[in-house]
């Protein structure tokens, strides 16, 4: 859906100026400006002045809130376009018209209809669809222009300075020590790539990162015509409902081989506890029961929830039993959540084939580990006996692996 009769901030190429000292400098400036335009097309949220402020106003005003929507008109798609028709609406939260609030703050401009532009220019035009509150929007825009607010400021607007660390191993390694020292960091979930992979913005550091959830293995969701794993779509939907465009906290632990950060993500409590404890069903607000579907919100009063633990407790992921995970302070909590989900037979644990496969895999891993330790003990005993008898032998690889421990 689109908000009726308003337009987001835009970069105006005509505002760009070039030096005129010589032809070479002029060409270099034009090439530089072309590079800037390419960057704006790829990152408009951060590179277009006041776009980020407009998004933040909407995010903080609307996320997790109940709103009233009125359909003003439907704008047909262009001939040959692959996009759907645009449904244009007016959005209200209580007495506040969101479009008017944006325009009043100078974070959006009003779209003139053909008839409106014709009246301003004295030409003949035909009426076009518009919001029912168009006159109020025009008055709000005039006030914002008069007060030089937002995009109408007399000062030169500059893009945000954001460092993108996504898939940049060298830069990610450079920032890793400082991010680890800071502990919990506030972040905004910009995009959810999968149930365990997120694109985050860290306001305090002005960083864009990709975060992989630590400690878990998630089923893969379907992509287009490609089918995913069982409960993969449910896991993705669960994460989207909880995290998309919301404030979260993160703890960074390490970096993978391509520059993605690995760590923990914590879901913060909602701003409004009533919104947190109720869900809208067919236009009516009903209290949740103790038994919740996978896509529901967090329980009332539950704050700073570890998302990895939440996914495991819903049976939508399993614990990744790796040494670096087992050393984590959250490992015990993860195992407890997995055991609870397995006993309750929720999510993936409701499937007999999955449960049997998991049990066989874990039993096999345990047995292999037991046999390896027995073999290493026998090899060590043989080595010690041979040395005591004065016989020189070459140690096997399994012996040297453990005999070198503790040496410098």
Describe the structure.
With 408 residues, the chain is α+β, with helices and mostly antiparallel strands. It is built from 14 helices and 17 strands. The longest helix has 37 residues. The C terminus is likely disordered. This is TNase-like domain-containing protein. InterPro entries: SNase_OB-fold_sf, Staphylococal_nuclease_OB-fold.
Keywords:
4-stranded mixed β-sheet; globular; 408 residues; OB fold (Dihydrolipoamide Acetyltransferase, E2P); alpha+beta; 5-stranded mixed beta barrel; 3 domains; single chain; 14 helices
Brief rundown of the structure:
Helices cover 40% and strands 19% of the residues. With 408 residues, the chain is an alpha+beta fold.
Q: What is the helical fraction, as a range of percent? A: 40-55%
Major sheet: arrangement of strands:
8-9-10-13-12
The number of distinct structural domains comes to 3
Per DSSP, the total helix count is 14
Work out the strand percent: 15-25%
Low-confidence parts, pLDDT < 50 over ≥5 residues?
Answer: 14-21, 31-41, 116-126, 271-302, 370-408
Write down the overall mean pLDDT: 77
Secondary structure class reads alpha+beta
GO cellular component, one term: cytosol
Domain TNase-like: 1-154, 183-351
Protein name: TNase-like domain-containing protein
GO molecular function: nuclease activity; RNA binding
């Amino acid at each position: 859906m689109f908000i009726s009769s308003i337009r987001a901030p835009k970069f105006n190429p005509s505002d760009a100026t070039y030096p005129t000292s010589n032809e070479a400098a002029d060409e270099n400036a034009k090439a530089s400006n072309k590079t800037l335009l390419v960057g704006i097309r790829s990152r408009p949220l951060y590179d277009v002045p006041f776009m980020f402020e407009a998004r933040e106003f909407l995010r903080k005003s609307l996320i997790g809130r109940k709103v009233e929507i009125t359909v003003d008109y439907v704008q047909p798609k262009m001939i040959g376009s692959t996009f759907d028709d645009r449904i244009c609406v007016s959005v209200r939260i209580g007495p506040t018209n969101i479009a008017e609030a944006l325009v009043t703050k100078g974070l959006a401009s009003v779209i003139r209809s053909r008839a409106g532009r014709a009246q301003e220019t004295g030409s003949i035009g035909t009426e076009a669809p518009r919001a029912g509150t168009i006159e109020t929007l025009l008055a709000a825009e005039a006030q914002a222009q008069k007060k030089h607010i937002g995009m109408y400021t007399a000062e030169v607007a500059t893009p945000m300075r954001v460092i993108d660390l996504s898939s940049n191993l060298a830069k990610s390694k450079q920032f890793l020590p400082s991010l680890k020292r800071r502990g919990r960091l506030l972040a905004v979930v910009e995009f959810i790539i999968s149930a365990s992979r997120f694109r985050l913005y860290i306001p305090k550091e002005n960083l864009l990162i990709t975060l992989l959830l630590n400690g878990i293995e998630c089923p893969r969701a379907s992509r287009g015509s490609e089918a995913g794993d069982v409960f993969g779509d449910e896991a993705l939907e669960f994460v989207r409902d909880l995290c998309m465009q919301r404030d979260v906290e993160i703890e960074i632990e390490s970096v993978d081989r391509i520059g993605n950060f690995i760590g923990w993500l914590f879901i913060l409590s909602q701003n409004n506890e009533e919104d947190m404890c109720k869900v809208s069903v067919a236009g009516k607000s009903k209290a949740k029961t103790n038994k919740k579907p996978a896509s529901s919100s967090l329980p009332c009063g539950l704050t700073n929830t570890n998302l990895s633990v939440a996914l495991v407790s819903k049976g939508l992921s399993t614990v990744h039993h790796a040494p670096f995970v087992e050393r984590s302070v959250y490992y015990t909590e993860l195992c407890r959540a997995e055991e609870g989900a397995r006993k309750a037979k929720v999510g993936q644990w409701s499937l007999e084939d999955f449960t049997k496969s998991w049990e066989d895999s874990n039993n096999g891993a345990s047995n292999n580990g037991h046999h390896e330790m027995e073999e290493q003990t026998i090899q060590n005993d043989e080595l010690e006996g041979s040395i005591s008898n004065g016989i020189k032998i070459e140690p096997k690889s399994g012996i040297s692996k453990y005999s070198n421990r503790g040496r410098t």
